[in-house]
Amino acid sequence: MTVPPAIEARSLFKVFGRNPREAVKRLRAGATRADVADAGSAAVIDASFTVQPGEIFVIMGLSGSGKSTVLRMLNGLLPPTAGDVFVQGQSVTDASAKALRGIRQRSISMVFQHFALLPHLTVLDNAAYALEIQGVGRDERRARAREILDKVGLGDRADAMPDELSGGMRQRVGLARALTSGTDILLMDEAFSALDPLIRREMQEQLIELQRELGRTIVFITHDLNEAMFLGDRIAVMRDGRIVQNGTPEEILTDPANDYVAQFVQDVDRARVLTAGSVMAPPVATTPVSAGVRGALRVMRDLQVGSVSVIENRRFLGSVTDRAVIRAVKDGRTDLRSLVRNGRPAVHVDDPLTDVVERAVESPVPVAVIDDAGRLVGTIPRVTLLAALGDVPPVTRENPIIDVPATVPASVMTETLEVVDQTGAVPAGRAAAPAEVDAHEHSAAEGALR
Ligand SMILES: Nc1ncnc2c1ncn2[C@@H]1O[C@H](COP(=O)(O)OP(=O)(O)O)[C@@H](O)[C@H]1O
Ligand SMILES: [Mg+2]
Questions:
Q1: 221 C-alpha to center of ligand 2: Å?
Q2: In the beta sheet, which residues pair with residue 188?
Q3: Which of 77, 183, 350, 367 could form a disulfide with 109 if both were Cys (CB 3.0 to 4.6 A apart)?
Q4: Residues, Cβ < 5 Å to ion ligand 2
Q5: How far is CA 232 from its chain centroid?
Q6: Helices in 67-196 by DSSP H: which ranges?
Q7: What is the rounded distance in angstroms from the CA atom of residue 216 to the CA atom of residue 210?
Q8: Lowest mean pLDDT among 41-55, 88-102, 178-192, 245-259
Q9: Where's the CBS domain (predicted)?
Q10: Which ligand is nearest to the CA of 238?
Q11: Contact call for residues 110 and 43 (beta carbons, < 8 A)
Q12: What is the rounded distance in angstroms from the CA atom of residue 27 to the CA atom of residue 23?
């Protein structure tokens, strides 16, 4: 048995005003909202999309673009002028009043905008309130509400009254209440827009966590692209009644369908949206640990890079820098394993760039990206990271280029260290005598840890 989509909107139109049918005819022929103003107010024009079970589908657009009108058509609150809505395979457009009530009770519900709590009920009874309305018995609804309160970190405040909680806590209770309601699909219209930024951020994170655990389908409306990008598995961007792009956050960010979307995208906090995997470069500078110090040096020289990733049994062991390798060659050491910088775990391919940035700040070598099995799947040099965050093409290489013979005289050692100076890893003008090298390595390592 195949599961039907949670929601399917097929060529939805909603025109308010004197002559909606006439307006739809002209809109189908390509007229804009402004073109048909004489016939009516075209709130939604030819909107088609599918929402899969378990997805967070975000509808994003400026005020007046038609978002709320789309949402009200999804649960049958507004009849479309043309087009169809199906909820879990069942037509909402053709449903009788009775069937519609059934759909709203079981399948699709609207979340109140401000999560207002009832002041005379305890936190627990507030969280259970949606279930009470649905006729769920007292013990069962309290048990389910308790479970959700635990999930939002308020399990120990179940008996408190709303006015004993902070604003952020009250919002979380409201969210818990919304999610305890039994319906599979939740419609949320600008649910977080009135919150102050810190609480809003916290609520976004909570929503994602709860949604993952509870597996609800959510249609979330916002005019804030950052919020859309953070929450959405997919985002439909609306403008003047039409959906102008429908895609994943990454698709919208990296390949905006038109100038309108591109303008929105300019302001987005890219670090929260892009993952390590989306910006990494293939790992070219790698060497098996068995190739030893000389093997590592050869790779760095051939590829003209300042560090190399060391691999053992296909797994990423860590990175070694040119300085460490050159030093080892000079000292006659051959074992590569002892040079690997440890204590600097790689990032996972699905980690957001915010995590990568933290790592990159700490580390002079490109950040390694690994998969679930610990295999090296890519690296992110600092310039690539900056380019991804700023959406500008990279113009420089991150690592100092070395070109040293396999036997390293002291003079070359000095030169190499001076190149390293330019990265800011070693205080300028202090890398002269080999006797001082130890101190420099030390301070460089400390600097990198800061
Ligand atoms: N009941 C209505 N009567 C007339 N025009 C409406 C009505 N509801 C919405 N509109 C118009 O439809 C457009 C889209 O509104 P809406 O869906 O509320 O946009 P959004 O939620 O994106 O801000 C707006 O221009 C609005 O003025
Ligand atoms: Mg609205």
A1: 8
A2: 111, 220
A3: 183
A4: 68
A5: 8
A6: 67-74, 97-106, 123-127, 129-133, 138-151, 167-180
A7: 9
A8: 178-192
A9: 280-336
A10: 1
A11: no
A12: 6
Q: Tell me if 4 CB under 6 Å of ligand 1.
A: no
> Could you tell me if 318 and 341 are in contact, meaning their C-beta atoms sit under 8 angstroms apart?
yes
pTM value? Answer: 0.66
Helix, strand, coil shares of the chain, percent, nearest 5, are 45, 20, 35
| DSSP H or E stretch at residue 217 | strand 217-222
Nearest of 427, 448, 280 to residue 364 by alpha carbon: 448
Q: Which domains does the chain have, with CATH numbers?
A: 7-107+183-268 (3.40.50.300), 277-445 (3.10.580.10)
Ligand nearest to the CA of residue 193, numbered in listed order: 2
What's the length of the chain? 450
Dihedral sign computed on CA atoms, order 121, 127, 131, 136: negative
DSSP 348-383: ETTSBHHHHHHHHHH-SSPEEEE-TT--EEEEE-HH
Per the CB < 8 A criterion, the answer to whether 145 and 124 are in contact is yes
Indicate whether 365 pLDDT > 70. yes
The atom number, within ligand 1, closest to the CA of 72 reads: 17
Tell me the pLDDT tens digit for each residue of 226-240.
899 889 999 999 999
Q: What angle is formed at CA 229 by the lines to CA 383 and CA 73, rounded to 5 degrees?
A: 160
Joined together, the tokens standing for residue 194 give 């009135």
Regarding the beta carbon of 67 and ligand 1, being less than 6 Å apart is answered yes
Cβ 319 under 6 angstroms from ligand 1: no
450 confidence band (pLDDT: 50, 70, 90):
very low
